[in-house]
Each structure stands twice: as structure tokens, then as C-alpha cells.
Design goal:
With 73 residues, the chain is mostly helical. It has 3 helices and no strands. The protein is flat and about 55 Å long.
Length: 73
């Protein structure tokens, strides 16, 4: 296991928990509200984020090499 990336992901999750808790306790903007406001300002945002998430899913978890590709052997 690569501890650098594991630590980075752990830091990302912990920072999200800290910022979200802070926002809820102080009445500031949460990530959900920020996303809603950004989507109102620019309606294509959820679709662009979906394309990015789908592209990452394909990149990380789709282990299929089409016949004739360089890595198909």
C-alpha cells in the first residue's frame, strides 16, 4: 500500500469533516449549499462533474483492453 496517497486521502476526508462541522456550527456555507449555488450560477456544472467522475471510474476500474490495442498482447 502506498502510504503517501493513503495519507493524502485521509487528510482530504478529515479536512472535509472539519470544514463541514465548522460550517454547520457557525451557520456558514456547507459543501452542499456551495454546490447548489454554483449549479444555479452555471447549470452545466453537475453534468461536467458527472463526466469527470465517470471518466475517473473508467480510468481506475475498467480493466478491459479492446482487441488490437497496444496493451492487449
Amino acid at each position: 500500500m502506498n502510504w503517501v496517497w493513503t495519507g493524502w486521502l485521509g487528510f482530504f476526508i478529515a479536512s472535509f469533516a472539519v470544514f463541514e462541522t465548522w460550517a454547520l456550527r457557525t451557520g456558514r456555507t456547507t459543501l452542499s449549499r456551495y454546490t447548489w449555488n454554483a449549479s444555479q450560477a452555471w447549470p452545466p456544472l453537475p453534468f461536467v462533474l458527472g463526466l469527470i467522475a465517470g471518466g475517473l471510474a473508467v480510468h481506475f476500474w475498467w480493466h478491459w483492453c479492446p482487441p488490437g490495442s497496444l496493451s492487449s498482447g
